[in-house]
Amino acid sequence: MTIANALASVAVRDLEASAGWYEKLLGPGSWPMPEVFEWQLERGGGLQIYRAPDRAGHSSCTLIVTDIDETVQHLHGTGIAPDAEPARNDRVDTVMIKDPDGNSIAFAQPKDSALAH
C-alpha cells in the first residue's frame, strides 16, 4: 500500500466561529460541503474543521512551514498566540498553539528538506 497524501481534520464546537478563527490563522478557506470548512495546502493534502462538539478539544495536527520565525511573527501579530515561542532542536523547529476549543496545532520547520514532503 502506498499513501500519496493526507488530510487532517479537527473537531470543533461551533463551526462558523472556528472558521473565522482558523481563517485569521491560515487565511481564506472554503466550504466544500455545509458541514466542513477546509484549506488546501501548497504541496497537497489539507486541513478540515468540522462540527463535533463531543470530540472538540481532542484533535491535533502538525502543519509544515518553511519559516518558523515568520510563523511565530504571524501568531504574535494576529494576537492568536502572543506568547508563542519556537522550540528548536537539531532536526526540527516547532511551535505549539491551541485553538479556542483546546485542539493542539503544531507548526514545524524540518531542518532536512526530505522530511518536509
Throw out a few tags for this protein.
117 residues, alpha/beta, 2,3-Dihydroxybiphenyl 1,2-Dioxygenase, domain 1, four-stranded mixed beta sheet, 8 strands, 20% helix, 36% strand, globular
Short description:
The chain has a single domain, classed as 2,3-Dihydroxybiphenyl 1,2-Dioxygenase, domain 1 (Roll), CATH 3.10.180.
Question: How would you sum up this structure, described in words?
Answer:
By secondary structure, the protein is an alpha/beta fold. The protein has helices at 15-26, 68-78; strands spanning 7-12, 30-33, 36-40, 46-51, 60-64, 87-88, 92-98, 104-110. The strands form 2 sheets. Strands 1-4-3-2 form a 4-stranded mixed sheet, covered by helices on one side. A 4-stranded mixed sheet has the order 5-8-7-6, with helices on one face. Helices cover 20% and strands 36% of the residues. It has one domain: 2,3-Dihydroxybiphenyl 1,2-Dioxygenase, domain 1. It is built from 2 helices and 8 strands; from the N terminus they run E-H-E-E-E-E-H-E-E-E. Strand 2 (30-33) and strand 3 (36-40) form a beta hairpin. The two termini are 18 Å apart. The radius of gyration is 14 Å and the shape is globular.
